[in-house]
Structure formats: C-alpha cells, structure tokens
Specification:
The chain has 489 residues and is of the alpha+beta class. It has helices at 4-7, 13-17, 37-58, 103-115, 125-128, 144-149, 171-178, 196-210, 214-223, 266-269, 275-286, 299-305, 367-379, 391-401, 403-416, 430-436, 440-453, 456-472, 478-488; strands at residues 27-30, 33-36, 62-69, 73-83, 88-89, 96-97, 247-249, 253-255, 272-273, 290-291, 294-295, 310-313, 316-318, 323-327, 330-339, 342-349, 354-360, 362-363, 388-389, 421-422. It folds into two domains: 60-383, Beta-lactamase (3-Layer(aba) Sandwich); 388-488, no CATH class. Helices cover 40% and strands 18% of the residues. The model is unreliable at 5-31 (pLDDT under 50).
C-alpha cells in the first residue's frame, strides 16, 4: 500500500485551483489539565471552548494541547478519547504518534555528535555508511547537512509498509541497503524536496557513529535528559495502554486498523510522546539546550539548527530539520507531522519564549487551526473561527441514510446556513485518501456524493487529479472506480 499522500500534500493540487478559579500565580492541576497564571487562565477561557467547538465541528476523537511561556507550562489540556470505540479518555500522559515532529530529534542527535567532533555537517553520507547507494552517481556527493536541509536530491518514501512493520534493531541498516535502486530527484544541493528517506538514513548514520541503535541513542542522550522519560521511538507489536489509537476520516472518522509504525522509518516518523513531555522539549529548546540542569546541546549549535539555510517558500526557510516561518510578523520555528491516523504540530516563538503543541489521533484534522488560535490569544488577537465543514454532517448522513438524503442535507445547509458551514471541495480529501489506500467502496461512496453536489468545473478538477494519480500508480484499483463514476455523470 502506498502511503505517499500522508507525507506530502501534492494530492491537494486540485484544491489550489479554486481550573479553574485562580489568581495569576496559582497553579491548578488535575489528571487532564494544567492552567497557570493570567495567560493560562485566558487560554482556558478562550481557547478551551474554541477547541471544544473544533472537536464537535470536525468530529475529532482525541486532542491534547500544550502551551509553554517563560519556562513554564501555562496550559495543558486533553479532550476526547484515545480510542473512539472503547472511549478511553486522553490524559496528559497519553502517548501519541508524533509523525514528522520526530525529525528535529534526528537533527539534535547529529549536532551532539558534531559537538563531539564525531561527525561533520559537510561530510558525505558514504563516509559514514559505505553501503549507502542510490541509482545515480550523485549520491556519492550527498552531505549530512543537505539531508537535514531537505536539499539532498533524494526521493521520498513511497511505501512505509505500516502493514508489515519491522521491529528488530537492524531495521535501519536493512532499509538503507534496500534503497540502492532508487533514483535521485535532483543533484545534491540543487533544490528543496522534502525527504523522509533522507532522515531514515540519517538515523543509521547516528547509530553507526555512536555505536548504539538510533532508538537507544535517542533515549539516553536526548529524551531522558530532556525530561521525556515516557517518550520513545519504539513500539511493541501491540498497542500499549494509554497510547492513542489512530483514526482516519475517509467518509467519516473511524478507528484505523493499521498503526503507523515500522522501525526502519523510526527517525523520520515514529517518536511517541505526550503533551507534557513535548512541553519539556519546547522548554529545553527555548533555553538553548538546557533543561533543569541537563544540557543536550551547546547554545552555538542552535545558531546552526535555526539558521535559514535554504528558502522553500515565501517567508519560509529550512534550518537543520526545523522550518523557519512567520506568524503575524513573529518569527516561528517548528515542525508539523501527519501519518495514518495522526496529525501533530509543534511551534516555538523564540523572541516571545512561547511554544504551542497540538496532538490529534485523527488524520486529516485541523491541528493548525488550534495552534493558530492559541498563538492569536497569546499575541493579543481574537482567534479566527472558521465555518464548520459541511462535509462532516453530510458524510454522516450519506453513511446512515444514503445518497439522496446526503444531497438534500447539502442543499439545505447551503440555503439555510450559508455562513455557518464551509462548502469547499477541499473538505472531501477523504476521496483521495480512499484512492491512495485502495479502499474502493469508500472511494465510490465519496465520488458519487461529489458528482451530485459539485458543479462541472470542480468535478473536472477532481477528474484531472485522479487521472494524474492513476498515471503514476497504474496498479491502483480505486482510481478507475472513481473515474467510472465521474464519467457516468
């Protein structure tokens, strides 16, 4: 099964065409919330109901949100369930799959080894991994820094094999040896192209240079010293207690059978952490590598980690794994993540000594909306409340009452509640998720709904996107089913 749509957003191409009563110094804490100080109270007053509305509007299973300000957790709150079927509540210590938020931990490990003069950013990967090879002579020139900057020219992972995970310690080397037939996308250093594959290879570099497995190195030298003792890059072959289960929205949000774990993709994707420990991660980074007397990096290393090495968009630059952007003219440093069943977002405003973290066990989900609302409140702005996606109730109606009832509900909402709901086609991304995951029946359900509610120009855009996908994935069986329904219109 291909998983490329979870890691890159090219599938969206057709869319682009169109507690507590307290004084300011009192801390209130329970098993699922922390609120501290005047700003924490403001967040609880404004952000909490905002999140609750988002959860209802988007039918989210579980959410955890944390806010750090001036070396303190001022707001940490959990909502909903680890598992929508068992209704086990999310708590402050519940572990979430962090997806690509894992990558800055890779960069931190590299910088630790650079500080010890065991690695050099401008050294080639083949210097550390003689067996590293791609089907293009340019691979010999790929450097560690280029991998961290996403300018290595390496391709991205097409199949993470979540459905047949490897658990043993040799998984990373096995993976590096398996990519020798992969073609490069460009010459090293030529252009930006996000690559999970590069970070998985970096994990093997860290293992070989340090003399211990990537997961053990992270636990000993980064996670534990950062106050992240529950966090881990490993997962057993069962879902442990107090771990969030993945959920996917295709037609409606449902528990996902497949968990996104494979040890060969640990460095790029499989950190598991909770909201409190991610707040600790924010504090140690905002303090230039020091947390409660423990130091993981020298301050000078952050000059390199957070240096804008390469521009990848308007007001957007790539550091060493970190992304440097703007939010209301404030400088931000962060990373987001998305995998089967999970969405995460982590952002810091260094000049304000602030960080916001959002974790959710549903993909797709609006974690960015929650992050932006929290930042708005902190910066003194009124958070923007977007209209609820009409697709959520309409798809529920489709599932329970059928096509005619769903179309009638769509028309009714457009006529009677045009300002309360968002009718944009982007909310039907489940169609493309179903296609990518070869879930034919779900794809046919959504295709039937789309052709009955959208005008011809939108359907033509969908058709073009599906045809483009199918041309690159000839073995896909959902795409032709979608095209058949579109052509029947």
């Amino acid at each position: 099964m291909k998983q490329n749509l979870w890691k890159v957003l090219t599938v969206y191409a057709f869319f682009t065409i169109f507690c507590i009563n307290a004084c300011s110094n009192l801390l209130s804490e329970s098993n699922d919330s922390i609120v501290s100080g005047e700003m924490g109270l403001k967040l609880d007053t404004v952000l909490t109901p905002y999140i609750e509305k988002i959860i209802t509007s988007y039918d989210l299973p579980g959410v955890a949100v944390g806010v750090v300000k001036d070396n303190e957790i001022i707001y940490a709150k959990t909502f909903g369930y680890l598992n929508a079927e068992t209704k086990e509540a999310v708590t402050l210590t519940s572990l979430f799959h962090m997806a690509s938020v894992s990558k800055p931990f890779v960069a931190t490990a590299v910088m630790q080894l650079v500080e010890q003069n065991k690695m050099h950013l401008d050294s080639t990967v083949v210097y550390y991994l003689p067996y590293f090879k791609l089907d293009d002579d340019g691979y010999k020139n790929i450097t560690i820094k280029q991998m961290l900057n996403h300018i290595s020219g390496m391709p991205d992972v097409q199949d993470y094999e979540w459905n047949k995970p490897v658990y043993d310690e040799g998984a990373l080397e096995l993976y590096v040896r398996s990519i020798s037939s992969e073609k490069m996308r460009s010459a090293p250093g030529e252009r930006y192209a996000y690559s999970n594959m590069a970070f998985d290879c970096l994990g093997d570099v860290i293992a070989k240079v340090s003399g211990m497995s990537f997961a053990k190195y992270q636990k000993k030298h980064i996670l534990n010293p950062s106050g992240m003792k529950m966090s881990t890059f490993l997962k057993p072959d069962y879902l442990p207690e107090n771990w969030a289960a993945p959920h996917t929205r295709i037609v409606t949000a449902k528990l996902e059978d497949e968990y996104p774990y494979n040890r060969m993709h640990g460095p790029s994707s499989t950190l598991h952490s909770n909201i409190l420990e991610m707040c600790n991660w924010a504090m140690i980074n905002l303090n230039s590598g020091t947390y409660e007397g423990n130091t993981i990096l020298n301050p000078e290393s952050y000059d390199l980690l957070w240096k804008p090495w390469f521009q990848n968009g308007e007001d957007s630059y790539v550091g060493l794994s970190w992304f440097l952007r703007k939010f209301r003219e404030e400088n931000t440093i962060g990373h987001s993540g998305g995998d089967t069943g999970f969405k995460t977002d982590f952002v810091m405003l260094p000049e304000k000594n602030v960080s916001v973290i959002v974790l959710c066990n549903l993909n797709p989900s609006p974690v960015m909306n929650i992050k932006s609302a929290a930042l708005d409140i902190i910066l003194g702005f009124e958070p923007y409340t977007a209209p609820s996606p009409a697709s959520i109730p309409v798809c529920k109606e489709m599932e329970s009452q059928g096509l005619d009832a769903a179309v009638a509900l769509w028309d009714s909402l457009k006529i009677n509640h045009p300002e309360e709901y968002d009718f944009h086609p982007q909310h039907f991304v489940g169609l493309f998720i179903a296609m990518d995951m070869d879930r034919v029946e779900d794809a046919k359900i959504l295709a039937s709904l789309c052709v009955n509610i959208f005008p011809d120009n939108v359907i033509n855009n969908i058709k073009g996107a599906v045809e483009n996908y199918y041309s690159n994935n000839a073995d896909n069986i959902a795409a032709p089913a979608i095209l058949e329904i579109i052509m029947e219109k």
